[in-house]
Specification:
By secondary structure, the protein is α/β, with parallel strands linked by helices. The chain folds into two domains: 310 residues, 3-Layer(aba) Sandwich (Aminopeptidase), CATH 3.40.630.10; 120 residues, Alpha-Beta Plaits. It is built from twelve helices and 16 strands. The strands form four sheets. The protein has a six-stranded mixed β-sheet with strand order 1-2-6-3-7-15, sandwiched between helices. Strands 10-11-9-12 form a four-stranded antiparallel β-sheet, covered by helices on one side. The protein has a three-stranded antiparallel β-sheet with strand order 4-5-16. The longest helix is centred in the last third of the chain and has 19 residues.
């Protein structure tokens, strides 16, 4: 595949490109927090009349907002799948053009659709709304109360895969811009919407490619995913490893002549699951210790043959401050200690299959204050500012494009689970918060 201008590499190579990317961010000089809060308060007061007009328009279009999200949920964009994000990207492009945005469609790999819409108003600051188009698979259909792509409305919620993660944020951003245009409030600068592929695998085939092509340029960015009580300002990184034990094949009837690789892995996997980092120091923004989870196991090829290979895939999440080199060294140390205690384990292979960097903003950065104030103005509750345990492709925007970014939506914890849902009131509140952020930053 060709990724970026004239750069050809296979997907395995793409998943590891962050080994050679920027891991640290240069933070510009920040104004005192008290000064930022005073400025935010002034902006809230100055935009009060415009806010009322825009919020009234959002309420008037409530049914349209619900219908938009339901249509999005009905379009499967599972990663991986045969069609990936292609249909969802085409739909998003049509909707952005209908809103009057200059829209560009980018296929970063076969069927991997991405869309960028720009509403240029005048010279001035720019605000980017970011959301991903892909979803995880639905899993066991028997565990769903409603069909995962029916977008059923029940109990004040829209049910379906992607309703919360992350089509809620995309629908809210689009409807916020629609309300701002309809209310004819005076804005300046530029509002942008970018909707991309591949977030569920790390963003290497999505937002990373748009950044590398120079398409992501803004002063501020809001990621349309999160929780109502938190402005997310950081995240853990991830390392995916495939660890393989080796043995020797034999007929089951003569198994003593073989060497069972699965039994070796049964002894080794718990040690990897309990992997610790004795030198770890807690991070001030991103909570939690490094942790490893053995999530996939593959071994054997026939019922009457002793297996000569067994592999586990390990998902390891780690906060800022821990390097890839330190992680790999610790894994090798644990394996060496295991072989010293159990020489029969023999040779063990370790392959790095996916890598994502951690990243974080500082709580006192102006964008964080603006986001918290907007949430409080709409919900009457001020969210905290902190990092999260999961990984985010926001790192590409922050570290590589150099754009400050926060995550927020009135979401919930149903993403990646059966019976994913989005509250209708949460959808409307998120739309209002995004519209208010435009008023605060682009007026």
């Amino acid at each position: 595949m060709v990724l970026g201008p004239g750069v050809a590499m296979d997907e395995h190579e793409v998943r590891l490109i962050e080994r050679h990317r920027r891991w640290e961010r240069e933070v510009p000089p920040l104004p005192p927090v008290e000064e930022t809060r005073a400025t935010v308060a002034e902006r809230l007061a100055a935009t009060c009349e415009a806010r009322e007009a825009v919020f009234a328009e959002i309420e008037r279009c409530r049914d349209d907002t619900i219908a938009l999200l339901r249509t999005m949920v009905r379009i499967p964009s599972v990663n991986p799948s045969e069609g990936f994000e292609q249909e969802m990207a085409a739909f998003t492009a049509r909707e952005l053009r209908a809103l009057g945005l200059a829209t560009t469609e980018i296929e970063t790999a076969p069927r991997r659709g991405n869309v960028l819409g720009r509403w240029w108003i005048s010279e001035g600051p720019s605000l980017l709304f970011y959301a991903h188009l892909d979803t995880v698979p639905v899993g066991d259909l028997a565990e769903w109360s409603y069909p995962p792509f029916a977008a059923t409305v029940a109990d004040g919620r829209i049910w379906g895969r992607g309703a919360k993660d992350c089509k809620l944020g995309l629908a809210a951003a689009m409807m916020a811009l629609r309300a701002l245009r309809a209310a004819r409030v005076p804005l300046r600068g530029e509002a942008q919407v970018v909707a991309v592929a591949d977030e569920e695998m790390g963003g290497h085939l999505g937002i990373a490619q748009l950044v590398d092509r120079g398409l992501i340029r803004a002063d501020y960015a809001i990621y349309g995913e999160g929780f109502p009580n938190r402005v997310t300002i950081g995240h853990k990184g991830w390392v995916n490893l495939r660890i393989t034990t080796r043995g020797k094949t034999a007929h089951t009837g003569y198994k003593q002549a073989g060497d069972n690789a699965i039994l070796k892995m049964c002894r080794l996997a718990p040690l990897i699951e309990m992997l610790d980092f004795p030198e770890f120091s807690p991070h001030p923004v991103v909570p939690g210790r490094p942790l490893a989870s053995v999530n996939i196991i593959q071994g054997g090829f026939k019922t009457n043959v002793v297996p000569d290979r067994c592999s586990i895939t390990v998902d390891l999440r780690y906060p800022p401050g821990l390097t890839l080199e330190a992680i790999l060294a610790r894994v090798q140390q644990v394996l060496a200690e295991a072989r010293a205690c159990d020489p029969a384990l023999g040779e063990v292979d370790v392959e790095l299959t996916n890598l994502a960097r951690p990243s974080f903003m500082l709580p006192e950065e102006p964008l964080v204050e603006y986001m918290a104030a907007a949430v409080e103005a709409v919900t009457s509750r001020r969210p905290t500012a902190e990092g999260m345990q999961a990984t985010s492709d926001s790192r590409w925007i922050l570290l590589d494009a150099g754009v400050p970014i926060v995550n927020f939506s009135m979401g919930n914890d149903s993403g990646h689970r059966p019976n994913e849902w989005c509250g209708i009131d949460d959808l409307i509140a998120t739309t209002k918060i995004y519209a208010l952020m435009c008023l605060l930053l682009l007026c």
